[in-house]
Protein 1
Amino acid sequence: MAELAQVSVGTVDRIIHNRGQVTPENIEKVQAIINEYGYVKNVMASNLALNKKYRFAVFLPKSDTIEYWKAPLNGIQKAAQELTIMGVALEYYFFDFNEDAFVQAAQQILIADHDGLVLAPIFQEAARSFLEKYQEKNTPIVLIDSNLPGLKNVFYVGQDSHKSGYLAGKLTGYGLQPNAHILILKLKSINENTNRNNVFIQRIQGFRDYFKEKKANHNFTLFETNSIIESKEVVAPSLFEGIDAVYVPNSRVHFVARFFEQHHITSVKLIGHELLKENIEYLQKERIDFLIHQKPEEQGYSAIQFLYKKKASQEENKEVIPIPIEIIVKENYY
Amino acid sequence: MAELAQVSVGTVDRIIHNRGQVTPENIEKVQAIINEYGYVKNVMASNLALNKKYRFAVFLPKSDTIEYWKAPLNGIQKAAQELTIMGVALEYYFFDFNEDAFVQAAQQILIADHDGLVLAPIFQEAARSFLEKYQEKNTPIVLIDSNLPGLKNVFYVGQDSHKSGYLAGKLTGYGLQPNAHILILKLKSINENTNRNNVFIQRIQGFRDYFKEKKANHNFTLFETNSIIESKEVVAPSLFEGIDAVYVPNSRVHFVARFFEQHHITSVKLIGHELLKENIEYLQKERIDFLIHQKPEEQGYSAIQFLYKKKASQEENKEVIPIPIEIIVKENYY
DNA sequence: ATGAAAGCGCTAACAC
DNA sequence: GTGTTAGCGCTTTCAT
């Protein structure tokens, strides 16, 4: 910078980072030049000189067994790649999908040393007590996928479950006749006793709220079941008799689609969540009408970007980073 | 890099940029180390040393009078801001929405000197002859918003009009009864004689194709009109009698929504394009059911990012950068 | 064919 | 309180 015009680089530096030790006159002189010439610091040179390193911990379920967790990981890796030149390095802690494994990984994270943490708080209680200890490190924490309300100093990049259930309600209701019969089919999954289950519950609540608010006079009927239909036997086709639309609040809507396919059930609308491969397959086959999701890759991506910005002190203050809710049909999937 | 392990920085540099002047032995030695240690060049240091500047020309209609053009400009500015530290500077050429102004601006661009160009080829013929001359500069060109087929060495970041019309067909047809009556209402606009008009034509074609392919047996009826309904008088409410759904292939769907509002026409589905303020207003009021768009900010953003990557030779080779087609309803607008 | 050295813009340690 | 200086990793020029 044009320090030549006035003083030395040292002084300018002290002023810019207001480390004090400068005469008011000088600080004014330099400020004037800054304003006049519209000086902006060269981030690259700065980073080069600082040679800063950021080490973030990523705490997620193993994604080689559960497709659902691949997407956020992809986003995380993409962000990591983009940010390596900024000195960002990730340390992964993957756990098997059970509470013991979660707790064990948590232990390791506590003894390790990082500049930030992103985690999916699958096991609510375990996550809570882990985070309480972790918070003493005074290092930013970003929750992903499902929230853990009531913790302060914890950021959230994830879905708005109630809102997406509400949207599902809208799409389901759109074009249905009055007195149509809707079935909410909550298929059991490994998430049954986890924090993810709250996501499904909130979606269902959102779904119901939509009809309560908008179609109250339409005499909709809502069933709810926890049946599993991975094997045909568990559910009888009769369950779907007289039903006009089925809403599956978790990612298992493809089971229903397959069931329809096998039993030649057509003309029942089918709405679900998440772009899992199998869901896409039935979307393409036009067995599923709508899939709703909040780009999970983007959640992972944003979480890492957020941590970086936070550390590089490029402001970034909001507590919740919203991810748009997207509507996917066969015709706009790509 | 670990040149210390072998030779001097100079030699390493020559190898990395293969400028020759190196013994095969050395090039092998260094290559080995590169592979082993997974060396990746520090882009920031590189840029610092190179002190490179990129100047891109942005050639768009004035957006202070036409809301439609604000969005891509926003995206462009966002990208510009992110890339200033990479030495990117933009030069804007805005023109009034007429061919003369377009041609005049084009002249200026031809005499100026840039490292890349992004433009909206509103006036097809004028744009064509301009681009033919511009291509001699041998500098990358990115088309935005509407394509100009048949030009080579020209990239496109924009919408897929046929596909989005097709999607509009799907959403319109979803939930309609057989024998429903659909009106395609093409409202006249300033774009009538421009390349943008092709966008609308292609959307309509996509819309029709959807019904041809999927609902042929449903006995849909399609009307088409070029009426303007900015003043009430032009269109009579009777036009909408017996109509179940209206599709407006351009961004003027809010005129229809307002017309419905004024004439208390309800229970006619309304589908359109673009998230203009006024369209959003009627989406919120539930007068418009669906709005389809391909994030125009993202188009602008991607265009600039593309140019930068192209120049910084970070590969980037595809000719068409796809922008997802998004479905917006009241419940997922934010 | 290769090495040495200056400089890109900024930071931080040190000397005055 | 202020100036000087080395060095971040890379490019480029100039000797050798």
Protein 2
Amino acid sequence: MTAKPRPTYSAIAKSAGVSEATVSRVLNGDSRVNPERTAAVLKAVDQLGYRKNRAATALASGRTGLIAVVIDDDLSIFDDPFWGTVTSGISRVLMANHLQTVLMVTAVNNVDGPVAHYLESREVDGAIFFQLHKDAMVRKLAKAGLPIVITGSPHTDADLIFVDTDNFGGGYAATKQLLNRGCKKVAIITGDIETTAGHQRLDGYNQVYRELGRVPAKSLIRHGDYSYESGQVQMRHLLEENPDVDGVFACNDLMALGAIAAIEESGRTVPDDVAVIGFDDSIMSRTSRPQLSTVRQDIAALGEAAAQLMIAQLNGEQVESRIMPVELVLRESA
Amino acid sequence: MTAKPRPTYSAIAKSAGVSEATVSRVLNGDSRVNPERTAAVLKAVDQLGYRKNRAATALASGRTGLIAVVIDDDLSIFDDPFWGTVTSGISRVLMANHLQTVLMVTAVNNVDGPVAHYLESREVDGAIFFQLHKDAMVRKLAKAGLPIVITGSPHTDADLIFVDTDNFGGGYAATKQLLNRGCKKVAIITGDIETTAGHQRLDGYNQVYRELGRVPAKSLIRHGDYSYESGQVQMRHLLEENPDVDGVFACNDLMALGAIAAIEESGRTVPDDVAVIGFDDSIMSRTSRPQLSTVRQDIAALGEAAAQLMIAQLNGEQVESRIMPVELVLRESA
DNA sequence: CTGAAAGCGCTTACAG
DNA sequence: CTGAAAGCGCTTACAG
């Protein structure tokens, strides 16, 4: 319980025979310090087991060494492993750069709420946001000069920095694959198209038709909400209105599984009667029967990229948003 | 980009006509301050839009307002929504108590690694650990006086504070249910029994047999590793060695699904020939066919409890470990 | 390249 | 109940 008196600059300065200012310079990588003195300081640091006091550094320098990861309450991280994976990718990269990850699970809609205040107070050096429905708060913070990265494309093309999966490319590849394997009538069950991801996947689907000089019938486009149930319900509608539908791109794996259930309950088989492709390459895509063909995104890499863009910003570098590639994974359902 | 000069104690003190010490007392809830002065300070705080500088507070008080959540690298949070859910429960409660959550995804085995140093350096006020295989580091930190809570039972019964699901009770209830529904020969596919959770679920299974004055045949106890594949493989072994097995408690939902696959590929049906119960009540338990009967644990509540125990410790209260109740959810598989 | 000194914005004995 | 003052452990112009 009795804490050993932790060494401070004063102890190191004494031990190394230099001033505290020099200790500070060495520890902050100031290259102008005389090599011998640098060595002496480093040796003292090592011998004394010195460790910087982050609070003192923060107070004096104005930098906290903390990056917030803000997750909207609505996002049900509760059932979705997606966010956890992104976050661990972020954390890994941040830690390697001596930054800590502050997790905030909260309502992000309030431009004037506690989170906004916290971030404005500069209690963190930057903030990484997860896909948001409303980006008013983020834009305000960005305008105030807080380094920001968004995971997922923002709605407005403000000059916000973001990283995202190639949703358009994924939707395109999935749809194309269905046509390539011989499907004549390919439908889509979209996710929440209020989100950019949902919208972009649909755009990819439409693009395939466009390149063929065709336009998909309205009845082939059904809107789900990423839930299993919505996949099942929308598939039933599809089969009713288009008994000859023979290919479906469901915008996530969960809906794809719901769709498969609906297809099988109608007496049809997958993929022979109707081929199905999902999106995410979640565990379920491997455990389901038939195994699901799907669009794989490297989620951890998405988080790592977000962290890297943050670090680049902190270093004052000019940064650009990044779109991460996807990969079509073919299993049994298509 | 030009930051407006943020107000400090000096501005509030001036505006309220009191000393900075009094401002500090009011803001820290010191009840001895004269009510009128308190009101004056609060008014000034409000008018000036004052917000405390956490770094300064930390430096002066020694308290950082930060709680670390340490997640072992091995735990594949990558595919498991469990940890994300626990973490969001923790974060919610911590935020409500003006504490921030610092996420550390890292290797926890090293008693002398960077994480240990970070935590020892008191850059956080406390640490919440997730289920660990080796608790040497945690014990060391606890001995050094760092407030600690563990999510999941520790291996040694050191006096570490922890919160855990009632794994024993869950295993007991699942096994009991299988017998109650008429199963004569109930097997178990365990999870990693190097973990306490895995071990306790098995203990619950054994206890049911014990109360019946019976001992399960060795061949009825198969060890999986929580993966779908292990559930499938172990179930095949079970069916081979015990063709008349008619009930299986799989220690998580994923293995239960693997087991169902093996049962069906053998030409048997679930639950008529073999009833199956899983553990977790994950999404998959609802999306699978047949829908899975399982043991539900309130994962977010687990995180909330962990945070509450941490806060109690910070308040100097005497705290005791908590075991959270589980609930048997019966669907189609048993 | 280096040091003395002021300062970052709070908290907390110490007196009264 | 309140204030003056010292101090928390760093960083950073300013001189030299």
Protein 3
Amino acid sequence: MSAKNNLLRRNERGMKIPHFDEIVLGDCTEILKDLPADCVDLVFTSPPYADQRQKTYGGVHPNDYVEWFLPKADQFFRVLKPTGTFILNIKEKVVDGERHTYVMELILEMRKRGWLWTEEFIWHKKNSYPGKWPNRFRDNWERLLQFNKQKQFRMFQEEVMVPVGDWSKTRLSNLSETDKTRDESRVGSGFGKNVSNWVGRNLVYPTNVLHLATESSNQNHSATFPRALPNWFIRLFTQRGDLVLDPFVGSGTTALAAIELGRHYTGIDISKQYVELARERISVAQIRLPHVAEHREKYKTIRKNGAIKGKR
Amino acid sequence: MSAKNNLLRRNERGMKIPHFDEIVLGDCTEILKDLPADCVDLVFTSPPYADQRQKTYGGVHPNDYVEWFLPKADQFFRVLKPTGTFILNIKEKVVDGERHTYVMELILEMRKRGWLWTEEFIWHKKNSYPGKWPNRFRDNWERLLQFNKQKQFRMFQEEVMVPVGDWSKTRLSNLSETDKTRDESRVGSGFGKNVSNWVGRNLVYPTNVLHLATESSNQNHSATFPRALPNWFIRLFTQRGDLVLDPFVGSGTTALAAIELGRHYTGIDISKQYVELARERISVAQIRLPHVAEHREKYKTIRKNGAIKGKR
DNA sequence: GTTCCGCATGAATCGATAG
DNA sequence: ACTATCGATTCATGCGGAA
């Protein structure tokens, strides 16, 4: 079943699923009520972090964050398939010299409401925001909390395997081919799946620590996470044709990652500006998609020749 | 004031401080009652993690972990100087497919009892335990929770600056880290001093993500964290002559780090075997200290020559 | 004395088996 | 049903032997 056939995707009871491959304007708590239960394969989102400045857009005071978030989490729970996964990218702010506790309280409350806190991944941000403070170093990591509805969930570990010695190339420094593959895997945007075709061997499973640089090139919006982040989790927890939901879709990075991986998406944001930006980026990306596919073929040929030449 | 003069160190009221530069056998909750209040500059410890096998040595069931730990945390709070810091190395176990919540609950409870949760460092364990499971990747990180008694605490950021240069930028930082650790294992001293010897390099402040491998080759005991870990925090939060406390000292790694950095130590452990092992390792280290200093000079010469050769 | 390679070794986790 | 034990899985690292 191709993605095209699924544009009129219906759920188990034959009802059309609203907001399929759309970026929707509104509060996700309300919008998600249009979705039937158990229809989403992966919820991946990076909500606006708690903010002391209550007047700022999206700003929720840390003390109100859990209360603000829980009704939304309830909706995520409802629309998520039993075998699906919820990945929450979040980090606690420093408030009055302390790390705030809203993330921990959120986890505890979500567990009371039926969520399983399966795992916590660490995103090691290799290029963090510069700065210096007398009693604190730069914050170089964020949490990626994994929640599930049940102990049995779908996970496709082979899709995210990485070349050996990815982050510590103390050995095997001789192999130029390995180096090339390693560089390509670091880009991690859509091509990661091809890595298994190229090498086939020397692949190992990753760990729960992800090393990715933030994307500094995008100037249209702040707080952008790299596309490689949703890309990685989409490959890990979904298959082609599955549905990915981002209820705080922002500039659309999650939707773009879903598109380039052949997954369906539903993106929601309460900001009209962000919705327009996300739609714009998606339309541009979809126009480019054939070009990308063509380019990928070219690149594969180049790679093969390069690999043959490179043999020593 | 040298360490020798401080062997009869007395507190502000002229009372001798018990257990100064000693490894003490017993339950730290009781032992610490011998210490006066506000005398410790840094508490660094890695307690036995929650263990389901309650009958095993050191095993505390995850559900009982917070209750078990809190009385000890109260003592740490009492003996710690107002400007001091408490670093807790801990990680939650997987129980029934979920990450257990005892760490979060512990943080919340400690805050209720006066602790400030200032920061959370991530220890990226580059060599984690192997294994493969259908629903989980290998666990590659642990928490290093920083607690303080007040917002103003002592921190010497310059002491842990790391060199960044053209060579260390292109070459992976992992590799240089390995070199440093290797230096340490060969020479027997902290790599911090070696770093300061690397003149002419640009020094930058580190972040809150630490990349260190566990020490797996040590056969005398299990569960060893690398000496570089306490070493780093001791340099960051104390000065020469200060007092470092490890209430779960185990094989004595924290005490060894304190000694090599010219800090005083108090180590406590409830296991007679561990106490004996720690005392043995410390006595060996102290005997070797002069020899090490001599060897270090030799090694520096070797290094220099190697560096000249190695320049590309 | 240097580099290279083989090998043992982990703060683990799951699922099956046994009591 | 519930708990305790055991085997299988897997890879970065340090150490020691060899060239």
